[in-house]
Amino acid sequence: MVVSKKKTILLVEDEPSLIAMYQAAFRSSPYNFLVGADATEGFKLAQENKIDLVLLDVIIPEAEGKVIEFNKRVGFSLLARLKKDPKIKNVPVVTLTNLDSPEDRTKASNLGAVDYLIKANFLPKEIVETATKILNKK
Amino acid sequence: MKGENKKHKNRIEKTRAGFWLSLPIRRAVVYIGLGLFVLGAHYLIAWANTIMFGEVFSTGAMFTAIAFVPLFLVGFYYLGRKLRKTANKYLFASMYDYQKTLDKFAEDVTSTINLNEVAGVTVRTIQQTMQIDNIGLFVKNKHYEPIKVFGFNEKELTKMVSNPRCRSFITALRKPIVYQELANSNYDYQQPQEEVEHARTQMECLDVAIVLPLITKGELIACVIMGRKISGDAYTQEDMRLLESLANRASISIENARLYNEVQGFNKTLKGKVDDATKRLRELLKIKSDFLTVASHQLRTPTSIVRGMLSLVIEEKDLSAEEREKFISQAYEGVNRLERIIHELLNATELEGKKMRLEFRKTRVENILEEIIHNLEPLAEQIKVKLNFNKPTRPIPKTLTDPVKLKEAVTNVIDNAIHYSPEGKVDVLVRRKQDQIIVEVEDTGIGMSKADLRMLFTKFSRGEGILQIHPNGSGLGLFIAKKMLEAMGGTIAAESKGKSKGSKFTLTLPIK
To answer: Is B304-351 a CATH 1.20.120 domain?
Structure first.
């Protein structure tokens, strides 16, 4: 089996409309695009595949069917887990969220995220551009 | 106690017999003692001279004697002091040094701002110089408060001083009240006779010899109650002059100490109030900040959908027609969601304190519920929730209420239940109980802890439940529902057996 030279992007996002939106946007990009709709699925996909970039939403459920608990910031605990796993810890993670407070930005940065993007401020194609820039740096 | 006073009286009576002798006796002791010393010194020098020179009156002997003079003078001085002290101690004479007492007192009383210490110094100085056992110092706040009391029965003395007649007598007089002068009635106090009599009997009752007022800036701020001297002597003119000087100095210090205490008290109260206010402010700021975080997030999510979807439709070349349509409709849905959230946010802020505008109409509640269930079915399907409506077995009468607001309130409650019971079920029923219509919404969802229940209907709740909003909500739905129901004369209550054990909301509406 030929190992694909294509780089793989993992999106962890729970909102169905946004998933469809980003999938359409990344269709014309030269990357594989995987989607996890909750923290559990996201972590599983990160372990089972070779990921080159993670786009991580912060307000997500722990697992499918679970309720979203705002103050838990499940995305951040997933980020911490990713950075602890020896296989994944060197994969760049971009926080892609609609939370915008100094505390959240600091937390993301402290946990090792390389960038912090507000979904409402960026068009889908701009997200693709940023992802491309980060992947080309490697 | 009466018994003790009697004993004290007896002692005074005994020494009174020999009292007119005691002063000459004391003086005699000192002089005799000194005289003996001089005699002794003379014989000592004579003996020394005889030993050294063979005789007493030679020139050489005289000169040697002069060497003894300084020694003699020192001995004379110290002996005189010792004798006076002993005479004072054992024969109770108060031969004090007026000026030294005043100076020392001034120094001691101004060295502290502590009321207790000032009172202590004052009382001790008077006790020592006047040689008395019974003394009490009272400071005037609203009443006379005892600060230091020795010898006297504190309760009885306080009662006497607090007696309004005594109080006004002391205040009116503003001079030391000496029992002996009252008793001899040879002094015009410029007060009605019965008041003077009353004061006299009170003082006699507790064996009070002197009431010494402490006045500063024309105000009576404290008073010292003194018993009789241990020796039984009367207070002399010199004593009274000293007491008045002490009183002057003491009153200033006591007033300062009192004011200092007052200021300390104010500071503490003020600090307490400021601390409370600061704590409350911090809490409010945190609540506001939390709310803004949630509100802005909830507004941004549909915004990102609308913007993103439309940008793809406009710019993306390889979208299928089907996709294009889908994105446009999702953008439309996003706008609707945005409108709903803005509506709730504005509603909630508007509802704060303002009267709601209601349009009352005769309404059949079951019809409203049916509409709501119908509207929420797609959502229930999406979240995989079974939504049941149990129609009432008997028709429920119409009631006067605002159907639009009722629909919004109940929708919020059921919507909430659906969102928090993914893959579960929500049962809605309506029934009549006497003059109330009761709507129950029961779910099998994540339930609520006691803390959550407490905070449930508040606009900005604090606690573990806070910000546990579902993705499409602003978190204010229940707050708005409560306000609306209450404006229509109804109630809303929630119960839950605990986390993961489901919840039940009970709404009531009066039948009008």
So the answer is: no
Phi, psi of A60 (to 5 degrees): -135, 160
Determine whether the interchain pair A70/B294 forms a contact, defined as Cβ–Cβ distance below 8 Å. yes
Q: Is the pLDDT of residue B448 over 70?
A: yes
pLDDT in tens, B362-382: 999 999 999 999 999 988 888
Contacts of residue B304 in chain A, CB cutoff 8 Å?
18, 98, 119-120
Whether residue B470 is predicted with pLDDT greater than 60 in this model: the reply is: no
Spans of all domains in chain B? 2-91, 98-264, 304-351, 361-510
If one counts the domains in chain A, the total is 1
Choose the closest CB to B311 out of A15, A120, A124.
Answer: A124
pLDDT tens per residue across span A46-55: 999 999 999 9
Closest-CA distance of chain B to residue A125, Å:
8
Question: How far is the C-alpha of B15 from the C-alpha of B90, rounded, in Å?
Answer: 13
Is some CB atom of chain A closer than 8 A to the CB atom of B235? no
Which residues in chain B touch residue A124, judged by CB atoms under 8 angstroms apart? 308, 311-312
Its CATH class, for the domain covering B98-264, is alpha beta
Which fold would CATH assign to domain B361-510?
Heat Shock Protein 90 (3.30.565)
Q: Tell me, what DSSP letter sits at residue B56?
A: S
Query: Exposed (0-12), middle (13-18) or buried (19+): which is A32, by Cβ within 10 Å?
Result: middle
Q: Please indicate, yes or no, if residue A29 is contained in any of the structural domains.
A: yes
- Asked if B293 and A21 come within 8 Å (Cβ–Cβ), the reply is no
ipTM of the complex: 0.90
